[in-house]
Amino acid sequence: MTSLDEPGVRTDAPATSFTLNGTPVTVRSDHPHLLAALREELDVTSPKDGCSPSGQCGCCTVLVDGKAIVSCQQPLEKVEGRDVVTLEGVPEAERQSFADAFAACGGLQCGFCIPGIVMRAKAQIDKKGAGLTREAMAPHLGAHLCRCTGYVKILDAIEAVAQGTACVPELSGQVGERGAKYEAAPLTLGERDYIDDIRVPGMLHAALRLTDHARADVTAIDTAAAAAADGVVAVFTAADIPGEHRVGLIHKDWPVMIPVGGRTSCAGDVLAVVVAETRDAARAAVELVDVGYDVHQPVTDPVAALAPGSPIAVWGTESNELSVSAYQRGDLDRALEASAFTVTETFETQRVEHAFLEPESTLAVPSDDADGRTLHVYSGGQGVWDDRNDIAAVLGVERERVTVELVANGGAFGGKEDMSNQAHAALAAWLLSRPVKCTLSREESFRMHAKRHPIRFEYTAGCDHDGKLTALRVRGIGDSGAYASVGMKVLERAAGHACGPYRWQAIDVETIAVRTNNLVCGAFRGFGANQAQFATEGVLDRLAELVGLSGWEIRKRNVIRAGDVWGPGQLMDDGATGAEVCLDSIRDTYEQAKASGKAVGLGLGLKNAGLGNGFREVCGAVVRFRSDTGRIEVRHGWTEMGQGVHTVALQVAAHELGVDPDRIDVVVDTTRELGFGQTTGSRGTLMTAGSVQQACAAALAAGCTPDVDHTGEHVVDWTQKLGDPGVTNPTIHSCFSYAAQLVIADRHTGAIERVVAVHDVGRAVNPMLVEGQIEGSVHMGLGYALSEEFPTDPDTGFPTNVTLRSLGILRAKDVPAIEVRIVEVPQPRSPFGIKGVGEIGLVPTAPAVAAALRDLDGEWRTRLPMRGGDET
Ligand code: FES
Ligand code: FES
User: Fold this and answer.
1) How many CB atoms lie within 10 A of CB 622?
2) Which of 14, 177, 322, 775 has the most CB atoms less than 10 A away?
């Protein structure tokens, strides 16, 4: 029996009793649902909380009397006397077969969704046994979301368990070899802690009071009622911040909290932090923080925001124009005039939510050391070094007093680059000298982290009689929301990639990032390249029709090759051969699909890997042989968010050292200076591989001396900034990856029945993980193309959809067959020839879908998404 005697918790509350994993338990009845009782009182953490209490992600699925149910929708009184089973209570042999199958099949990435899916699969296998096929299982995953995998390998794993297929997962010790993901088994079983699963003695819970208005002067914040509420320990406002009040990755313009006398700038602004003994108490008391406002009309139209006389949208700024990215090459007007065919078209893309399954969570633990106070922060962010620097600045202490430890997160896709609640948890812990955890609800998560930019493009493009591209003019306006984040870089990348992987005689591109009072927009897989190449590929297809060429042929005639000059003037190296190899690889399938009468669309794309643009990129790694444990520690600087960077580090180290990969532990924290910026831009694999390779070389040269740091570094310092004067052929990016995707639709049903994705990744360190990345990208790309959107109300700047289900993400049963083909054209000057795979993933998907739909019904598409959620 569990005890009800917890600090700050009423012990006279009514109780509910049930059987948990075969043992009778009694819990307080005042939990909002079964999931809260399991996680917060019974400390059973395999059921994850992705969206409670809305019941829309499936991560919290458990068995009640043998039936799979989402526990965040289950009132406690309904389980009185019943039999509840979580993954912890599944017989060991079954647990092992699920762990083996998911690891061997590559059925997980971040892993956050998997324990819930395993419980659903168990219920179905218990019922249907070996008769459970992937086709039969897919509809049952309708209650679940996976944002990483595209469900392909999840269904492989479930089918393997159902049919009793022997799976023997093994970590690989070779670069280029398929192998299990690092920590795959504990992730599958829900045993590898995410931050919200961590409990430390004396831990308090923080909840955030968000603004009621996107643009309003804050005239008063009354915290008295909240402070007096049951279980509340403290309430903090901006007045309690000892150091810097604003943080940010590039501009320090994002207020940690809006003070009295300040002005809110978007729906994600924070006004107060309530700290209490329990999460429920903190969240309840947040509602009692009384705020006075003088409300102003928000600026929500980016075009109007640029007009002379527009009010300034964002508090503390002087202009709504965040950035302008522009370049010209050749005589555009003359090239257009000489063109045999021209098209002019306007394209609009939508705001999109990342929908990573794990909402943001931070745990900050202070300690009193002999040489002063320190703070250890567990973060799931994409740049723990940036987190540390900003946290130290907010606290007004030296960086050395703050350590940030990465806890591999439950998905990010760019949405965890900016800090969300890290500073708030750190501030509360520092001021109270007690551990404080802050976990966002799904709605808070939606409001606080940056989204994919909606961008409006005007394109004019021309070609000659043979379909050779002549001229391209692009004007783009992107709604960057309130704070800078990396919005200027996203629009810069959109400008750079607006020419696609093609040769143009003349080009003139300008994109503007605009500040508004909408939600912040920033990094999201593809980083501006998706939006731009939806438009670029669209004009290419229109030109092809005018000339009378197929979609494949016009691309073949114009594809960029080694030695060609790419849009902004970059002289392409041998790595560029990958674009044409992808195109050639897909030709037969393209022709066969057309010949069979299917509606067919083709997209070709490129995406840089790394920051480029003149940044000196440095990445360190450490290899350490521990004499106390006999194990080998590999330390690197990157965030594991499902993409497999820990597995890359492990595989490279085992490969280089010639050791058993099972001996290796992978660690990321800020006690060693190994990081340089964010895990972003597909650079994690490339930079990690390079630095670990060097660290291994240093270790081998030193005879693998135990208990010392053998360090290695990978540096990319040969790029130049877009638009740098006096540089004729700037190397804007050190590396590009390429992909061609083919979308095949049935003419009778209109359904997309198959996607073929050919990706040049330079070198696939682990082909199984690469396939998983591409399958997940295609799933995300189909949603982007067809159904996903995260609109805001133009009158308020607040999101109009605040549930996961309303986002339009494709469910398992709606995902067509995805066929992945990996191409390896090595990148010069890159370790092992690696190019990267994460960012390019969905660049070609939306234009390929648009072309297939045009083939289907004769209509050109200019706006995303192209269909409603139910029509896919
Ligand atoms: S947490 Fe219960 S369904 Fe999402
Ligand atoms: S593995 Fe499914 S959400 Fe990440």
Assistant:
1) 22
2) 775
Q: Half-sphere exposure of residue 819, counting CA atoms within 13 Å on the CB side?
A: 10
Pick the atom of ligand 2 nearest to 357's CA.
3
DSSP state of 863: B
Is the peptide bond prior to 298 cis by the omega test (within 30 degrees of 0)? no
Which position has the token pair 């409670």? 52
How far apart are the CA of 733 and the centre of ligand 1, in A?
41
3-class DSSP state of 310: coil
Tell me what pLDDT residue 3 has.
37
Predicted pLDDT at 617:
87
Q: Which of 469, 476, 514 is nearest to 329 (CA)?
A: 469
pLDDT digits (tens, 9 = 90+) for 278-294: 999 999 999 999 999 99
773 ligand 1 Cβ < 6 A: no
Q: Is residue 168 packed enough to be buried (19+ CB in 10 Å), middle (13-18) or exposed (0-12)? A: exposed
Instruction: Let me know: does 624 contact 709? Beta carbons within 8 Å.
Output: yes
Closest CA to 205 of 419, 2, 7: 7
Find the 67 Cα to ligand 1 centroid distance in Å: 16
Cα–chain center distance at 795? 29
pLDDT for 699 beyond 70:
yes
Which atom of ligand 2 lies nearest, measured to the CA of 147? 3
> Of the residues 31, 38, 51, 114, which should be mutated to test ligand 1's pocket, given the most ligand atoms within 8 Å of the CB?
51
pLDDT tens readout for residues 678-692: 777 678 888 899 999
Contact in structure between 188 and 181 (CB atoms under 8 Å): no
State if residue 535 touches ligand 1 by the CB under 6 angstroms criterion. Answer: no
pTM over 0.85: yes
Query: What is the residue-wise DSSP string for 347-393?
Result: EE---B----SS--EEEEEEEEETTEEEEEEEE--S-HHHHHHHHHH
- In the chain, DSSP finds a helix count (H) and a strand count (E) of 21, 29
Cα of 54 vs centre of ligand 1, distance in Å, is: 6
pLDDT per residue over 145-180, tens digit each? 999 999 999 999 999 999 999 999 999 999 999 999
Structure tokens at 337: 């005039």
Q: What is residue 423's DSSP assignment?
A: H
Contact 747, 598 (CB under 8 A): yes
**What's the whole-number mean pLDDT along residues 82-99?**
98
Which amino acid residue places its CA nearest to atom 2 of ligand 2? 146
pLDDT, tens digit, 9 for 90 and up, residues 321-332: 999 999 999 999
Closest CA to 297 of 806, 864, 796: 796
Please choose from 147, 192, 413 the residue to mutate so as to test ligand 2's pocket, defined by most ligand atoms within 8 A of CB.
Answer: 147
Per cent of the chain over pLDDT 90 is: 89
825-828: long-range contacts at Cβ-Cβ below 8 A with a sequence spacing of 24 or more?
A: 825/574, 825/575, 825/577, 825/578, 825/581, 825/738, 825/760, 825/762, 826/574, 826/575, 826/762, 826/763, 827/573, 827/575, 827/735, 827/762, 828/573, 828/574, 828/575
CB atoms within 10 A of CB 223: 22
Provide the residue count of the chain.
872
- Centre of ligand 1 to C-alpha 47, Å, is 9
Task: Yes or no: say if 851 and 741 are a contact pair by the CB < 8 Å rule.
Answer: no
d(CA 602, CA 552): 7
**Closest C-alpha among 670, 659, 619 to residue 834:** 619
- 356 Cα–ligand 2 center, Å: 8
Name the average pLDDT for the chain: 94
In whole angstroms, give the CA distance from residue 97 to residue 4. Answer: 36
Q: Any residues with Cβ below 6 Å from ligand 2, and which?
A: 108-114, 146-149, 357, 411, 642
Cis peptide, bond prior to residue 14, ω within 30 of zero: no
